[in-house]
């Protein structure tokens, strides 16, 4: 969908590090724009099996700390976190991409139907 709306090809599963070590791999990295796109969905919060014994609160706090570390890197200008409703037809994902500084075809503000 990102390609369909005019975005450049992202680097997938790019690993980031800081002075404390590995922060983690992100879903999509646009190095020229300094934008990270993390598409996790909500199942990681709702499904007990995906939380590895942690509470929803602990998962959210861990994600916040990780995202803070990513945003603190010099090369990272924005982190955006779409969910399914944003990427389905009519969703706001193209507008999110444009707001983050990625090139999106003129006039495309919602996810097109495939």
Structure characterization notes:
- With 114 residues, this protein is of the alpha+beta class.
- The protein is 27% helix and 21% strand.
- The protein has helices at 43-46, 56-71, 84-87, 93-99, and strands at 11-18, 21-30, 35-37, 78-80.
- A four-stranded mixed β-sheet has the order 1-2-3-4.
- The longest helix has 16 residues, at 56-71.
- It is globular and about 45 Å long.
- The model has no long low-confidence stretch (mean pLDDT 94).
Short recap of the structure:
It is built from four helices and four strands. The protein is of the alpha+beta class.
Order of helices and strands: EEEHHEHH
User: What does the average pLDDT come to?
Assistant: 94
Structural shape: globular
Multimerization state: single chain
Structural class: alpha+beta
Instruction: Note the beta-strand portion.
Output: 15-25%
Major sheet description: 4 strands, mixed
What share of the residues lie within helices? 25-40%
Work out the radius of gyration: 15 Å
List the helices and strands and how they pair.
Elements: E1 11-18, E2 21-30, E3 35-37, H1 43-46, H2 56-71, E4 78-80, H3 84-87, H4 93-99
Parallel strand pairs: 3-4
Antiparallel strand pairs: 1-2, 2-3
Which features would summarize this protein structure in a list?
single chain; 114 residues; globular
């Amino acid at each position: 969908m990102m390609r369909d709306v005019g975005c450049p090809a992202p680097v997938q599963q790019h690993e980031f590090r800081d002075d404390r070590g590995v922060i983690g791999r992100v879903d999509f990295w646009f190095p020229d724009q300094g934008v990270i796109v993390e598409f996790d969905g909500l199942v990681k919060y709702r499904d007990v099996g995906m939380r590895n014994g942690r509470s929803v609160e602990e998962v959210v706090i861990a994600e916040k700390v990780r995202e803070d570390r990513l945003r603190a890197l010099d090369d990272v200008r924005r982190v955006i976190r779409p969910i399914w409703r944003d990427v389905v037809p009519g969703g706001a994902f193209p507008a999110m991409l444009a707001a983050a500084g990625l090139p999106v075809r003129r006039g495309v503000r919602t996810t097109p139907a495939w």
